[in-house]
Fold these 2 entries.
Entry 1:
Amino acid sequence: MLHDLSIGELAERLAGRKVSSLELTRHFLDRIERLNPALNALVTVTADAALASAREADRRLAAGERGRLLGIPLIHKDIFCTDGVRTSCGSRMLEGFIAPYDATIVARLKAAGAVMLGKANMDEFAMGSSNETSFYGPVRNPWDPAKVPGGSSGGSAAASAARLAPYTTGTDTGGSIRQPAALTGVTGVKPTYGRVSRYGMIAFASSLDQAGVLAQSAADAAAVLEVMAGFDPKDSTSVDVPVPDYPALLEAPLEGLKIGLLREFFDGLEARNARLIRDALEVLTSLGAKTLEVSLPHLPMSVPTYYVVAPAECSSNLSRFDGVRYGYRCKEPVDLTDLYERSRGEGFGAEVKRRIMTGTYVLSAGYFDAYYLKAQKVRRLITDDFRAAFEQVDLLAGPTTPTPAFAIGAKVDDPVTMYLNDIYTIGANLAGLPGVSAPCGFVDGLPVGLQLIGPHFSEAKLLCAAHRFQRATDWHTRRPPGYE
Amino acid sequence: MSLTRRDVEKIAHLARLKITEQEMPVYVRSLSSIVEFVNELARVDTESVEPMAHPLIGQHQRLRPDVVTQGDQHEKYQRNAPQVQAGLYVVPRVIE
């Protein structure tokens, strides 16, 4: 079936005119119509625009143009501005907001001929690990509708897992691509900080946010990342480093690749999850890699560090939502202060308000040194630990999450319990490192992810290791029941 | 609890967020919980460690030439505005 094909296979069929982009687009729009109601993975479906893009792609293909992504559908996380299309960021604050421009990654994928089917649901303003904070309702995990898909790119992950599109885009600030990828059994890639443009990506925490992809395989993710990545003069944190041809580098041999196993990742990890990770590592060693135990002594401080830095940055970034120029405005404000306070009080959900207030507190006079400055120092210690580890090994490996998907509603009462879901992913964001999560098995019928983290700009090596793993295993080809 | 109701009222005011009477105890509890959690950071020895604002080394704020690259597009950008008049954003009276 068309939704079982890889990006490479789809590109081949499109080039050989065995299938048209229009047929492909209709196929996925039909799947969305039938299957999305049970998942709530999409906030907006752009059927007419998708068909128009598909026709345009077919015109380009007929004229002899070729491209890895030309004519292939995708779904964008609703955090990316999409010209003329609602961009809600999972919030009431932007319920009616029609983006007046395309984010850079949206424009790049569009130029490559990608066909946008719609916008994926997400935790509000990317704050969450379960897609339960969305104003548009929770997203359900296709593997078990009573379970969360993870977050904040929960809609993107669920849509990829359910094959509502061949691939989806996401963002990762504390694990928001990798964690939902692990919980839904897809391959998620968070690039190095500065690798992919943040222009047009609604900002949560500016020193942590990165855009990436959730796909069926590392090979597919490589094709998408190659188009998304690259210097953008419109993003002042974009790094001017050439983009390797990731797909061309996937088959490099793993002989001699040194993989570090973080002691801190395995301490206290539940036995069945730990077994799957160790089995996955055995596959990699059978392919020629070597494993070494390493330790990052400050890593256990990564979650408290993050929950000072990220809220601080978010309190600043979300101050632009004031009911004045765009976004939600309260009814009949009596004065300017009332306008600000009620527009923001009513427009934002509880988790967002919690984080804004946490951030405001840690930046406020009398607390700045003890919290924000302190956190920035601990951030350096964590980053230095990673750097030291990468002097001994090429990549780090471990679990992506402490457990598989948990039940919807199970963790909403205590924010800190929810925050600990990101315990394995957050370090990479603080240090700006790239990371990949690839499916490596099941516990109680729910997917488990293997995480690989690399030094800055080592995406090619990460994708290669994940790809070689996927050539030797078939976890990434499994389908949730009912979504075959 | 690490934060009092007064603390939360002050923070909410700084952040220009209206917290209702009903919501207040919930926020006092959850913010206290978060602050207690991040207080862990005090245990780390950061003597003579420089704060890190940016995760990559050797990167600095790029500048660009001070030339206009995009013209006036205010009509397009103001399409999302709640209330606009003569190209200006309308808000409740600020100055008495």
Entry 2:
Amino acid sequence: MRRAQTGASEAFGGLIARHQGRVFGLLGFLLRDAAEREDVAQEAFLAAWRGLGSFDPARGAFSTWLLAIVRHRAYNALRRPHRSSSAGPEPFADAPPAGAGEIARRLDAALLGLPVEQRLAFLLAEIHGLPLAAVAEIEDVPEGTVKSRLARARDHLRAALRPSLEPRP
Amino acid sequence: MSDDPLDSPAARAWRLARQEGIAPGDFAARVLAARARSSTSAPLPRRRARLRWLEVAALTAGGAWFVARVAGLFLVFSAS
């Protein structure tokens, strides 16, 4: 991290390699178009590189700081006219993992059906396992707002799973 | 054991599988190349500013020459 902060490109390359999976995992549920996801991921990493001097490890984890940049860039992309919408009937994340089955497909579809703020809260807290304080920092809202977004998102996903758990006649 | 469907083994497996997306194989190299390109183009505004100063200096010199020329002609005419 310190070497990357001094501008060492191979050190920053290491940071990219370590965090790109998480960044693409998040963007997979926020932006429909694959090329746009790559653009936003690249913009976010470049912005992080430019701002690396201002990153203070004492204030929080690098991943939280990076994901806040990713969120900001993704929201900008969603606001752009004539670009991909965040909502739609067909899933736009990567295909469900092989053998994941019906439950994974239902969860994917339910997550994609959520308003983007609830979706992001669920992704950060439940998928990436970030604490509420970090999610609040990334979303730039109070923790109480994150809690209510998460509760609504969980209810929605539970409801989507219910038919698959009921015994079939 | 929790009866929350979001805590079921299948839902947990889904959460785990969704943690990481798939980046293009050359993604890191592409970001580094984009950064290198933006670094080389950074001095451009400074070069443009230097050129602007040269233009101002040239115009000032030209203006001074013109004023001296007019003043010289005026002196010639007034002497004759």
